[in-house]
Structure formats: structure tokens, C-alpha cells
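Quick one:
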Amino acid sequence: MEFKVTVNQNQDSKRAVDVLIDEFEISAQMQKRIRLYGNLWINGKPGRMIDIVHTGDRIVAHSSQNYSELLPVKTNRIPGVEVLFEDEHLIVLNKPSDMVVHPTMSHSDNTLLDLLSEKILHPVTRLDRETSGALIIAKHAHAHYRLVQNPIKRVYWALTHGHWTKEQGVIEQPIMRFPNSIMIRVIDLAGKAAITNYKVLYSFQEHNFDWVEFILETGRTHQIRVHSLYHGHPLLGDGLYGITNYCELDHQANFNILEIDPNLHFLYLHENSIHENFIDHNKQQNYLIDINLLKISPQRIAPEYQSKFKSLINKKQLLLDQMIKRQALHSRLIGFTHPITKKHMEFKAQLPSDMMTFLEDMR
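Output:
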């Protein structure tokens, strides 16, 4: 990797390394790579990182890593992956749902990064497996370092149960990992600061759900899903924070009543009305769904929104989850400063066909 710069007046009498940091914001790791494995030239002569330079001096530094070692990525070989932008430093993709971005404990291979390249790639923004849309992947460590040092604009579209009281607002609640769980996040004062802006784009009055735009000011794990649930509006199809997560099946029960009792303790549904993950296809019977009120805690749902949330536990809302089949969350827009050119860039990812079809059917 090569860095070229001409020293300006404001950089006169600085060390060469300080000029490189000024111009390229190189990390400590990159400085070490240049010093130990690369080389540095000042006005065409070998130099050192600590050498003092003056106005007009020309600095050329090389690290041990070349862009050619990282290319090409194989985006054209991955069905359903749209390339929104690509150069030698980064790639912006429109990821389909049901695709894991990077290796995890439960998905160690066949991830998006595995399919893109045999070389090491660096995800700058991350999306859950079921979340579709725009994400950035850096092709080398320096690009990744520069990208994460600057603000990244992240706009999401989601479908949420119920109707928001205010058409737009800000959710500012700290998020932390739930004890004894590697996945679940909850609201807790001991957590990390998390800020989400929201705006209702369209309300589907007849079907009791909203199309909402979320803009992140922070990037906590599951932030939109946790904040939306906290306000009593879980995402459609969300298996971890959605309404189905608050129902427990009793396979011994045999009820034909399609209703919810006044105390919201039990919901009776016919087998065909339940999300497919809840169905035991070997048993031709109806099921009793018990609403687990113990899960409805202040860490998950704000007390002032709990009654509104409980009203969502009904056949109609569960059917919406069954229809969408995955968490209805899409990374609509990503904006950032290019790590090398320093130009501001923004890219929009079109809604995937499953969400488009669902919205058209609901209108």
C-alpha cells in the first residue's frame, strides 16, 4: 500500500510520521507495518518515520500490503447480491436476507465474507442474518480504520406492529447484553448509550402496523429491534424480540376458540394460524398459546407501553409475522467519507422483493 504527500506550510518541521497521520490518519498498526516491513522515501531518498520534514518535501511510504493481494472479490458469483459501489479500497453491497455476513459461533463458514474472497476482508457495518440492505466492507485494514474513525450515516426501513403515538421522535435508552445470554440485548442504565431517531412513513390502519424509518446515531447490537420493542412496537417477524417470543405453546391443550381472554393470559389459536416455527406437523390438533408475562419486564418494554404491547398478542398480528417470514428490517441508506479520497458518499439499497410484495399486498 502506498501513501504519497507533499508537506504543506502547516506541517513544516514535523516528523514524517506526523505528516502521514495528518493526511491519511494511519493507525498505529499501519505505522508499525511501514517501519518494520515497508519503506519510506523523502524527496527520493530513503528516510525514517522520525525524520523532520519541511514545506515542499515529498514523502512516499509503502507498507507490506498491496491492494493487488486483496483483489478481486467475487461479487458476480453470489446470487442475489447487488454491488452498489466498488473500488480498490472498499465495496458497498445490497445484502439479501437470510445471509450471514461474517463467521459466528453458529455459522462458521459459507458466510458473505467467505464467498467474496479468500483474503481477509473487514466489515465496517454489520447486518443480522435476516436483515437486508446496504453494508460496507473494507478491502484492507487501513480503509477499515479510516472508515470507522468518521461518522457513518445509517438509515433503516422497518415494519413494526401497532401504530406509534408520535409520528416522529427520538429514542434514547442505554442497551446492554442480557445476563447469561450471548444474543439478547435489553434496556439498562448500566448499558452503553444508544440513540435512535424514528419517523413513521406510512400507517397501515386496517392491518395495524407501521412502515417506519429509523436513523441511528449509535450502533449497538440489535439497537433498532430493542428500542422499537421498548416502545411497544416490535418488528414484524422478529423471532428474538417480536410478539411470538412472548408466547409459549401447550401441546396438550385442545381448544377451538380463536380469541384472547380479558386478562391477556391465554390466546387460543388454530394450528394453521400459528407461525410455522410453532407448528408440530405430526400432530393434527389445536394449541394453547400462553402469553409469558414474566418476559414483559421494564428492561424489555417500558411500563407505559406494556398494555399497548399486550394488545398486540392476537391472531391478526401473529398472522402478519407468518406472512413476512423474517424480521422486517432493511438497511435503506449508508453514507460515509471515503477513506482515501475523503469525498462524502451515499448509497441507497432498494427494498427486497419479499418486503415489496408484502407491502403491495397490504395496501
